[in-house]
Amino acid sequence: MRLNINKDNWVSYKLGEVVSKKEENDKENAKNRFDRFLRVEHMDAESLHIKRWASQENGDELNPYFYKVFRKGQVLFPTRNPHLRRTALASFDGICGEKTLTLEPIQKLVIPEFVPFIFHSESFYAHTTGAIIGSTNPHVRWRDVANYEFLLPPKDQQAQLAELLWAMDEVIEAELKLGECLKTSRNTVFESILKTAKGKTFPLSKILLPKTEKSQVPHTRIRYIGLEHIDSGEFTCNRYDSTESLKAQCNIVNEGDLCYSKLRPYLDKAIIATFDAVSTTELLVYDTLFVSKEYVLYHLHSRLFLNYIIGQGFGSKMPRVNHNIIGEFSIFVPENEQIILSKMGTLNESIKQNKCKIESSKALQKSLINQIF
Questions:
Q1: What is the pTM of this model?
Q2: CB-based contacts of 27: which residues, under 8 Å, 6+ apart?
Q3: How many domains does the chain have?
């Protein structure tokens, strides 16, 4: 879809002239004033929506460096690892880390509905990624973010374009909601089928075979899978980065391997690799005995396993699990798994079709954003 845009009367501005940086820091009382706080991992890549958060009331521990207050309607831009493309629009008041920018539109120049999409344009990503400093803690400074330059349309055009972009965003959100419903149905149907199947129960320690082959720098494989590339609840992963700039040891992942994220198990990240790659060492890589990796993957995404594994995480700031903890969970091994997998086929096909629609809609939204900025 091509937009017929005449930019002759658009004016060049720097981002710092269009948004203002707010610093509402409250080291003494922020934790008493607000219950909810946001970590960077609560922000999804290339999405403006906040769908997860931590809660003191629920027992989540607040980092001592979390004292910056953010307000509903502000744009939240984490300055650490800007290449992860996590910029969100705050939908409530809360607390975030000191390194997250809290930005508000300067309304004499720009309408609030138009501003958030600036932060998800390819030109903005390129600018901020190119301004990264620090090797062990890559981040970008506000002054460099503020220097991002772009063409700004008049307010009437801003309103029209914002309406178009938010309409596209609504389509994506509706498709994402349908996808979540389909995944919930998949788990329900899977659990229901198991109730009438014949077989025996085994702990995962008897089924999962750890694969521990490592890749050293410089890596010979060109694809790198990080946790940021794996979407919660998905069975496969299509995204990856280049290994060219990697400076750390990685796991070797072969096509068909079962991979499980031991970091923050509540994020429900487990896949079967669809290509050869190296990965973060936060991924556990497995082969299986007795049953297929696809069958085990259904269990790793099941409500029973999630309820179990979330309660087993150790470490308050970055909870993790390990192979021994995973291995203590028992699953049902059927006499004939193919009967079960074939019954799940229709739902899986619906989920795949939904995912294709989501990817197509996101690609269209990205195209529209990049035509504007």
A1: 0.82
A2: 67
A3: 3
